[in-house]
Amino acid sequence: MTDFFVEVSPGGPPADQDIADGIYPVVLTGISDPKTVTARRGKNAGKDIDLIDWTFAVNDPGNQYDAREFVESTSTATGPRSKMYEWLTALFNGVAPAIGTRLQKGDLIGRQAYATIVHDEGGWPRVSQLSGIPVAHMQRQFAQATGTPVQAPGAPAPAAAASQPLREAVAAGVGAPAAPPTDELPF
C-alpha cells in the first residue's frame, strides 16, 4: 500500500455532477446576493469585482441530466451590453427589459431558457449562451402538462371567463412552471 499526500485530478466537477457540452432547457433555481472577488485574469486582473451566482437546473424529463444543477456568475452590471442584461432578456422569452425595470429574485427564479453548455480549460461546464424559449413553445408545454387547450396562432383571444381555469391551474401550481408563460411581461 502506498501512502500519498495528494492526487492530481483532471479538473472540473465529479462525473456524477458534470454535464456534457450541448444545448439544454434549463430553469433558474437560485440567485445569490452579490459577492466581491478579486479577478485573477483578464482586463480586470487584480481588481475587486462584484459577482452574482446564478444556479440553473436542466429541465428536461427523461434526459440523463434532468435536474442536474450548475452555477454560473455574472457581474452586477445591468446595462444593455452586460451579460446580466442578455440573461434577463433570455429569461423573459427574448424580450429585453426596459431601462429602469426593477426585478426581485422571485421575478426571475423559476423562469426558463435554453443554455448552451461548453467546458472551459479547467474542465468546468460554463454557459456560453443563454437563449429565450419562444412563448408559444412554453404555452404548448403548459397545455400538455395541464390538459388545457392552446389558442391557435392568429385566433381571437379567449374571453376572461374562458381563461379562468388556466389562471386557477397556474395559481395552484398544477404542472406549471414557476412563472407561467405569458405574452404580457413585467417590462
Keywords:
single chain; 187 residues; alpha+beta; 2 domains; 4 helices; 6 strands; flat; disordered C terminus
Q: Can you describe what's shown?
A:
The chain is an alpha+beta fold and 187 residues long. It has two domains: 15-133, Beta Barrel (OB fold (Dihydrolipoamide Acetyltransferase, E2P)), CATH 2.40.50; 136-172, no CATH class. Helices cover 18% and strands 25% of the residues. Strands 1, 2, 3, 4, 5 and 6 form a six-stranded antiparallel β-sheet that branches. The longest helix has 12 residues, at 135-146. The radius of gyration is 20 Å and the shape is flat.
Fraction in helix: 10-25%
What is the terminal separation in angstroms? 64 Å
Number of helices: 4
pLDDT averaged over residues: 83
What's the story with the biggest beta sheet?
6 strands, antiparallel
CA-atom Rg in angstroms: 20 Å
Task: Choose one word for the global shape.
Answer: flat
- Examine the coordinates and then state which fold CATH places here, giving the name of the CATH topology of the largest domain: OB fold (Dihydrolipoamide Acetyltransferase, E2P)
Structure summary, number of beta strands: 6
**Domain count:** 2
Class by alpha and beta content: alpha+beta
Query: Strand-residue fraction?
Result: 25-35%
Low-confidence stretches: 158-163, 173-187
